[in-house]
């Protein structure tokens, strides 16, 4: 939120901040809107920015974006404090609306404005955190880990009370790249940091994120308490977007108990929250879950429609890996039905093989050997196994042979990237904390989290994507049509331009 200034109206900004701290987000919005109407100059602009932030938390992302743009238009050309603050906050609304390119542009502009600032450390941390969030949305795991490490270092230097945020981003990064027990450790440290800092909103968000991780690890008993606590908070505070995420998780648990009616109801309520708030990507994720319920309930046409809507949402925003993961999901559903509907088999193969190739290619972008191994075993290998099974069921011996050849070919070290690329800088350098660190809330959690970050950065050398395999005896490139389909469908490079003859 914007810092209040000594002009008339300061008391309203302070009152709005107090309401926010108490968890009364709707009340804070009303106060900031009153302040915007009753004030002029920088105080009015600050009030609009704060109102936009509250609207975003309440799930009215379109209204939030409109307010941010109004504030930016009213600012002087050179507003060294207000402009980067508004840009960083606006990026949150843009992310919720799925406008990742605009969010990235706003954050890069803010980062440039903050480059020479010596007194806006908190905002620099916030900017880095938002850049990490965009990288996480795009599933650029190596860059997300780099940014999370940089923001952790910035928090230690400038704003230890914000330590929980980079710790939670590290948790998300490591969870999605397969280091899941370590991710849970990071999430618990983030929760401890927020509790020590007295940040009720962040505590609830972290409880929810931790619960989701535990659910995905099948640790349902551990997930129950943080999920229930966070859901009570979000429902009472009227935070529709976060309440929708909680409903999605509760629905997943109901689906796991085969209570499809309850799952359908909870997913439907969650989807309504996301649609109302314009949270496009969350709505797409939920449609994937709803598609499974529809499929299990025999509503196959509805399943296909939901998956198509989700795919379009991802594709329109350049999220190729999510498209590949959706296709893997789609083919997995079809695998359960091919015995009764053989005509689905060819379609399942056409989805599963390009998806597996694209998902497998991600591990070559990860910066250390441990992460690549985890991604392969936990994420890529299941996708490739599905491709093999469907190829076998289809009786396509040539495809099976090509899959075997490409899986056995391996890859090569990329020394240039190890010396100059982002990956080379990824091993997290945990610097000495400031001398007054112990005086800040959450300092103990920050120190432990920093130690975990150091342990997490196991050594490894970056590698290049695998080459294309030229089969000398047959005069063709193995899997050529599937590679082409994957690169066209997902907009990602999944094979190096080099050709290896075998």
From TrEMBL:
Segments forming a coiled coil: 93-120
Domain of life (superkingdom): Bacteria
Keywords on record: Coiled coil
Record-linked Gene3D superfamilies: Tetratricopeptide repeat domain (1.25.40.10)
Keyword Coiled coil among record annotations: yes
A Pfam family the protein falls into: TPR_8
InterPro entries: TPR-like_helical_dom_sf, TPR_rpt
Protein name: Tetratricopeptide repeat protein
């Amino acid at each position: 939120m914007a810092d209040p200034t000594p002009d008339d109206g300061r008391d309203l900004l302070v009152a709005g901040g107090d309401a926010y701290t108490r968890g009364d987000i709707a009340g804070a919005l009303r106060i900031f809107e009153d302040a915007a109407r009753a004030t002029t100059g920088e105080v009015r602009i600050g009030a609009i920015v704060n109102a936009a932030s509250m609207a975003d938390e309440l799930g009215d992302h379109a209204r939030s974006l409109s307010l941010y743009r109004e504030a930016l238009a009213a600012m002087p050309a050179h507003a060294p404090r207000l402009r980067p603050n508004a840009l960083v906050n606006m990026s949150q609304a843009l992310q919720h609306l799925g406008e990742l390119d605009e969010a990235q542009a706003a954050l890069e502009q803010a980062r440039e404005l903050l480059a020479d600032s010596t007194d806006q450390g908190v905002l620099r941390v916030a900017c880095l955190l938002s850049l990490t969030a965009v990288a996480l949305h795009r599933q650029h795991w190596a860059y997300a880990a780099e940014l999370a490490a940089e923001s952790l270092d910035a928090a230690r230097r400038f704003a230890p009370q914000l330590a929980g945020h980079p710790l939670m981003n590290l948790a998300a990064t490591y969870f999605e790249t397969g280091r899941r027990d370590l991710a849970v450790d990071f999430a618990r440290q983030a929760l401890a940091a927020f509790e020590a800092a007295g940040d009720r909103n962040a505590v609830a968000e972290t409880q929810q994120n931790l619960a989701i991780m535990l659910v995905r690890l099948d640790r349902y008993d551990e997930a129950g308490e943080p999920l229930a606590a966070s859901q009570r908070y979000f429902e009472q505070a009227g935070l529709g977007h976060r309440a929708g995420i909680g409903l999605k998780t509760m629905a997943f648990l109901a689906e796991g108990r085969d209570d499809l009616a309850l799952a359908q109801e909870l997913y439907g309520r969650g989807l309504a929250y996301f649609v109302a708030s314009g949270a496009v990507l969350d709505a797409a994720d939920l449609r994937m879950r709803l598609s499974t319920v529809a499929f299990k309930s025999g509503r196959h046409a509805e399943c296909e429609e939901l998956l198509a809507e989700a795919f379009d949402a991802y594709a329109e925003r350049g999220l190729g890996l999510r498209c590949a993961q959706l296709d893997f999901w789609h083919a997995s559903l079809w695998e359960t039905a091919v015995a009764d509907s053989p005509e689905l088999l060819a379609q399942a193969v056409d989805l599963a093989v390009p998806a597996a190739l694209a998902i497998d290619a991600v591990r070559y972008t990860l910066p250390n050997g441990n992460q690549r191994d985890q991604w392969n075993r936990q994420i890529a290998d299941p996708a490739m196994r599905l491709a093999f099974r469907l190829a076998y069921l289809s009786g396509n011996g040539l495809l099976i042979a090509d899959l075997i050849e490409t899986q056995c070919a391996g890859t090569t070290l990329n020394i240039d990237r190890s010396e100059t690329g982002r990956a080379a800088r990824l091993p997290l350098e945990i610097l000495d904390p400031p001398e007054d660190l112990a005086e800040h809330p959450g300092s103990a959690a920050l120190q432990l989290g920093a130690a975990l970050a150091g342990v997490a950065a196991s050594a490894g050398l970056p590698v290049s994507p695998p080459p294309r395999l030229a089969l000398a005896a047959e005069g063709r490139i193995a899997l050529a049509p599937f590679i082409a389909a994957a690169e066209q469908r997902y907009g990602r490079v999944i094979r190096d331009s080099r050709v290896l003859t075998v």
